[in-house]
Amino acid sequence: MGEMELAEAQAVADDTSRDLALVRGLLERTPETCAALYDRFAPGIHRFAVTRLFGDVEMAEEVVVETMVDAVRDIRRFDPRKATLSTWLYGIACRRVNLQIRKQKRRKSVPAWAQIPMEAVHEVSDGNDVAAGATARLDARRRVAKMVVILSDVEMEVLTLSCAEELSVREIGQVIGRSERAVHSILHRARTKARERLVSEDE
Fold first, then answer.
1. One-character DSSP codes across 12-68
2. Do 49 and 162 touch, CB atoms closer than 8 A?
3. Closest by alpha carbon to 46, among 18, 26, 65?
4. What is the rounded CA–CA span in Å between residue 114 and residue 106?
5. What's the maximum distance between 2 C-alpha atoms anywhere in the chain?
6. Of 143, 191, 158, nearest to 90 (Cα)?
7. Minimal CA–CA distance to 153: which of 75, 78, 55, 51?
């Protein structure tokens, strides 16, 4: 095993150890563990939610809070044999996001002020104003807005988890409850649709 593989294995072991410590603390209902859970996972979940909710920061913040509350309440349902703590939390967040989308009837509608390019998600979804740096990204936002229209909910969900959160195919499968083969298929389809739309826009 090379140095890089050893480092990756050690990182996985460290994450697993941290997860187990968090789970133990949550089972004991210690306030500091709840704060640690939020500090570790809230930024990523917020990035995911703000992208899926078309830049609605306030709604994304609600999703983060609801996800954390659900996780603390239902921690006894977490099974480390089936998922990591991270993918379990993203699964909760996905359900919360989809509920918000259904409630707001925003499945195929993207407000002009909230059109965010996939590559800019890390820059704009950390709780700051989503309009920051908008002038430099207007064209990309316009393209992604049209991309959202042609992608199904699950395609957008998988693409977001892959591009914005950099989850592996296996992890995405755990989050959405699909096989790795199914995730590969969905991701390929989403990327193909996005590529075709971007090409047609350039012609």
1. HHHHHHHHHHHHHHHHTT-HHHHHHHHHHHHHHHHHHHHHHTTT-HHHHHHHHHHHH
2. no
3. 65
4. 12
5. 59
6. 158
7. 51
Could you tell me if 143 and 200 are in contact, meaning their C-beta atoms sit under 8 angstroms apart? no
Structure confidence by residue, pLDDT tens digits, 116-170:
555 454 554 444 443 444 343 345 445 555 667 788 888 888 988 887 788 999 9
- Distance between first and last Cα of the chain: 48
How many residues are recorded in the chain?
A: 203
Residue 174, C-beta contacts closer than 8 angstroms, at least 6 positions apart = 82, 83, 84, 87, 88, 91
pLDDT tops 80 at residue 57: yes
Instruction: Give all domains of the chain, ordered by start, each with its CATH number.
Output: 3-202 (1.20.140.160)
- Residue 2 to residue 23: CA distance in whole angstroms: 32
The residue type of 84 is: T
Q: Residue 83 in 3-state DSSP? A: coil
Q: Say which residue the tokens 């050893």 belong to.
A: 6
Residue 147 and residue 198: Cα distance in Å, rounded? Answer: 8
| Burial category of 105 from C-beta neighbours within 10 Å (exposed 0-12, middle 13-18, buried 19 and up) | exposed
Encoded amino acid at 155, one letter: E
Q: What is the pTM of this model?
A: 0.71
Give the Cβ contact number of residue 56 at 10 Å: 20
